[in-house]
Structures are given as C-alpha cells and as structure tokens.
Design goal:
By secondary structure, this protein is α/β, with parallel strands linked by helices. The chain is 59% helix and 7% strand. The chain is built from 22 helices and 9 strands. Strands 2-1-3-9-4 form a 5-stranded mixed sheet. A two-stranded antiparallel ribbon has the order 5-8. A hairpin with a 4-residue loop joins β6 and β7. α1 crosses α6, α9 packs antiparallel against α10 and α18 packs antiparallel against α19. The relative contact order is 0.11.
Length: 554
C-alpha cells in the first residue's frame, strides 16, 4: 500500500457520512438500541424483554428480532457512557465502515487490480454510504465477511495457521453480527478448495477456517434454545416459508433484484451508461438487457405483488428499466467471466461469491433491499476490474466514482431528512397535546415509534380472538404516520370515532426519496416501492393527531 493510501481509504469511508452523524434513529435501529438497553441490565439475556414492533404482533424480542445481538453488545458501553445520543452511537459504528474499506482494499490488492480505484468505487456506492451512516447491521456484517475473505487469501499465500485461525474467527463474528454472515462458512470452504496456496489444506486448515464458525453457530444455537426455548437462527427460516408464492409476487421479487443491484450500487448503472455511449463492452448484451428492463417496467412491476401505494409513473418506469438492464448486464457479464473455461481460480471464487449471494437474495431473503446489493458488490466489482475487456479506463473509473458519490450524498441526505421528520413530529405532537389528559397512542414503526415513545405514546394494537387489543377511551389521543404504518389497525379503528386535532406535513426541498411509499421508493425494502430511490418532491410524511370522542358499545 502506498504511503498515503491508508489516509485516502479512511477518508473515503468516513468523510461522506460524518455530516449525518446526528441524524435521527430509524428503520430497525430502535430495536438494536432496545437490545443494548437490555444488555446493560442483563448481559446474558439480551432478548429478555417485550415490545410491540412489527406486523406479526409478537411482543417477545427473541421472536420478532431475528438477528443476533452482537452489534448491540458493541453499542451497550457507548449507550452507558453517552445515553441515547444519535451522534455518539453513530460514531460508535464508524470502525465497521473503516474495517470494510481496508478489508476490501486488501482483497483488491491480492486480486491484482488498482486497489485504491476499486476501493473508491466500492465506498462510493449508495448502498455503502447510506447504510454506513446508520447502525443497521449490514455494513458491520459486510466488514467481518470481507475481513474473513482477506485473511483467507493471506492464509492461502502464507500457509500460516494463525491466518487460517483469524479467518475462521472473523467468519464466526460475521455470523453472530447478522445471520446472513453465516454464508462466510461455505464461502471460505470453497476458497480453501478452489484457491491455490503454499500448501494443500489439511484437516487442521478445515477445522480452523470452517470448524470455528460452525462451532460458534452450534454454541449460540444451544444457548438460545436453553434461554428462549428455540434455536434463534432457525426461527429466521420461518420467514422463507412465509414469502408469498403467487406468480405476481415471485415475478416482482425476481424483477426487483437487478433493479436494486443497478440503482443501489450505482456503478452498474454508470458502467451501463458508458457502454451505451461508447459501444463497449458487449453493447449487444447491454441492448438486450435494456429491452428486458423496459419489458419488466411495462409488464411485470405494475401488476406485481405486494401492491404499491402509487402507480409506476414514467420517471420511475424509465429509472426501473435502466437499473434492471444495468444490473442484469453487469452481473451477467461478471458471472460469465467467472465461470468461463479459461478463468483462473480467483475468478471462479469471486463468481461463486457473487452467485451465492444472488441466490440468497432470490430464494431465501423475504424482500429485496439495498443490503442485497451491498453483499454482492465486492466480488461483482472485482470481476469487472480484473477483466481487460470489461474494466473501464482509469479516468472513466474516477468519473464513475465521482458521479456515484454525488448520488450517494444526495441519498444519505434524503434518508436523514426522512428520519429527522419523525423526531421533529414527536416534539410537535407533544406540544400540541400539552398537559391535556388522555392516554397517548400511535400507529407507526421505526423512528416514529421510537421518538413518540419518548413523549409518552404507546403502540396501538388491534384486538384479536386471543387478545382484546388496546383499550381506547374517550379523550385518548391517536397519532398516525402515513408512510410508516405498523400493525394493520384500519378495521379496528373503524369502531372508534376520532376528532381531527392537528396535522403535520414533513417537507424536504431535496428532490430525492429513499424509503417512501408515496414516492414509490423502497431503499430498505422493495415492498415500499418499485425502485431503491425516487426523484420526487412528495412530502416525507403526513402525521395526523386525533382525539377519541366515541367508542363502541359493549
């Protein structure tokens, strides 16, 4: 590594997200924060609490939070030292962005590409920048996975058992950060089998590289079964069975994946644009992929399931078509290079890495989001840059990096504005109610739920055959947020009469939206929109406050 490269890599990883460190909590961050609070009270029982969170209505944390608690253990000391400070808790996870950056740089160096240019392209992707500005699990698990691969490559070159041991330990940490990190186990196993080294892997190598994460997984499974009555990671497989099986939903899921690859990574979309302008590489493949994208935008997305709130308009349709074509073209050419007869072992390993995560996103994950794109980005990018026929010129790579970073900064600003809207709304709602009597209820999720809980609101839960649900009384207050609905309470609320009290419309001049059903954007889930981001000026959200004036008679 050149003398100044470490500084450049660190700057690329942290400087784009530093201005947004004070952004409000959102998406699943309140859950990870709640687990960290619990760890401070009972370190050996991280899921021993209840809260209403998602559409399942489950209240036991071990049931609705199907993620391991390792990141919350990391956050707990920061929480104890600085409280629920958004800035300090976000700074706390910056080391994972740095770890991901330096691990990818090390892999790129061994892959015989210009490591700084490759790292800059990776770190400029919207999927990296937006997720690194949060303490979602995705950058952290990606960092440990990249470290495990980097250490495996070093172990194959050195033959040193300590490097194999370190690779196995990093894989174990990846799996205990987010369960998708368990993919490091077959990935490292394939690396041992495929990659040449200073010596052939023996039983000890397999035990160190694969045996350690398998043992960690088994021990965690035994612990959760003893503590909570079930194997925690096995419960996550239930989500696979709950995926919709209708033809329209499956078609929507399959069609969305290339769109998120193209848009949430940006470099496939920009490489695609260069190809259309310059006629290389493989213009004919790009044209066919573009036509397929147009067909998807016209005939698949509009009738897909789940239904979106807004129809697919012309702008989003064009963006979806371009992103689909770019994603399909970029992944297709990369995998073709990796499985070609004359490809070398590292190319085959990278193709297996990329193909494995594509298969996970298609057949296992219950929705498509930017995290899927982030998982496939490292091998996809390296397969492109290792090919003299595919790789853009150095100048074009820097242009693509600059364009992708500009888009990423806009998207992280848009995402922060969406989160901040709920923190502001909580203060406005509390001021509107003042000291008036009445229980405070809310219908919402993510940051909306978190910040309203700070001012005395509790989640409204509909009744069922097993539970009477929330007991509303005349004089109670109900706050709703249009874009972050939680449980389906529409039918339940029809039983009550509400008087509108106030309404807040959160606006933003920035014409970008991330997860916003009114804009048709679903950065964090394709269930929210047709594209990972949208060019739109629709309100960030509409928050309404009502007061109960009539209840059903018994």
């Amino acid at each position: 590594m050149k003398a100044r490269e470490p500084l450049a890599v660190a700057a690329l990883a942290v400087l784009p997200i530093a201005p947004f460190a004070s952004a409000a909590f959102g998406i699943d961050e309140p859950v990870f924060l709640a687990v960290a609070h619990r760890i401070l009270v009972a370190p050996l029982d991280p899921f021993g609490f209840a809260m209403v969170w998602d559409s399942t209505g489950a209240s036991e944390a071990a049931r609705f939070n199907l993620n391991p608690p390792l990141l919350s253990y990391w956050l707990a000391p920061w929480l104890a030292a600085f409280g629920e400070s958004e800035t300090w808790l976000r700074v706390a996870v910056w080391p994972f962005a740095l770890l991901a950056a330096f691990s990818f740089h090390a892999i790129a160096s061994r892959a015989r590409v210009d490591a700084l240019r490759a790292t800059a392209l990776f770190l400029a992707a919207p999927a990296f920048v937006v997720l690194a500005a949060t303490f979602q699990l995705d950058v952290a698990v990606g960092a440990w996975l990249l470290l495990s691969v980097s250490l495996l490559l070093r172990a194959r070159a050195s033959g040193a058992p300590r490097d194999e041991l370190a690779a196995g330990c990093a894989a174990a940490v990846a799996g205990l950060t987010k369960y998708v990190g368990l993919a490091a186990i077959p990935l490292l196993g394939a690396g041992l089998a495929l990659l040449p080294g200073s010596r052939r892997p023996r039983l000890g190598s397999w035990m160190r590289v694969v045996g350690i994460p398998v043992a960690a997984l088994a021990l965690w499974g035994l612990y959760t079964r003893a503590q909570y009555g079930f194997v925690h990671y096995a419960a996550g497989l239930a989500l696979v069975g709950e995926r919709g099986t209708s033809a329209a939903e499956l078609a929507s899921h399959v069609a969305s994946l290339p769109i998120w690859y193209g848009g949430a990574l940006a470099f496939p979309l920009l490489f695609f644009g260069l190809c259309l302008v310059r006629g290389r590489p493989r213009l004919e493949v790009a044209v066919i992929a573009g036509i397929a994208g147009a067909a998807v935008a016209l005939y698949v997305l509009p009738i897909g399931r789940p239904l979106r709130r807004v129809p697919l308009d012309l702008g989003d349709g064009v963006l979806a078509a371009l992103c689909f074509g770019a994603g399909l073209w970029c992944v297709g050419l990369a995998l073709a290079r990796g499985v070609a007869a004359r490809s070398d072992p590292l190319d085959r390993f990278l193709a297996l890495w990329a193909g494995g995560f594509a298969a996970f996103s298609l057949f296992v994950n219950w929705h498509v989001n930017a995290a899927d794109a982030l998982l496939i980005a490292p091998p996809l990018l390296l397969l492109w840059l290792r090919s003299p026929r595919l790789a853009p010129s150095p100048r074009a790579q820097w242009i693509v990096t600059a364009a992708a970073l500009a888009l990423s900064l806009g998207l992280v600003a848009a995402d922060a504005a969406q989160r901040n809207a709920y923190r502001t709304a909580a203060s406005q709602l509390a001021a509107a109610i003042g000291d008036a009597p009445g229980t405070r209820w809310q219908v919402g999720q993510w940051g909306f739920q978190h910040y309203l809980a700070r001012v005395g609101f509790q989640p409204l839960v509909p009744g069922s055959a097993r539970s009477p649900g929330s007991q509303l009384a005349p004089g109670d207050w109900v706050a709703t947020a249009r874009n972050v609905s939680q449980l389906d309470v529409a039918a339940y609320m029809e039983r009550f009469t509400l008087k509108p009290v106030d309404r807040f419309v959160a606006e933003s001049r920035l014409p970008l939206r991330t997860t916003n059903p009114d804009a048709g954007a679903g950065f964090y889930t394709h269930h929210g929109g047709y594209v990972p981001f949208a060019i739109s000026r629709v309100p960030l959200d509409e928050i309404a406050l009502g007061r109960v004036i009539g209840v059903p008679r018994e």
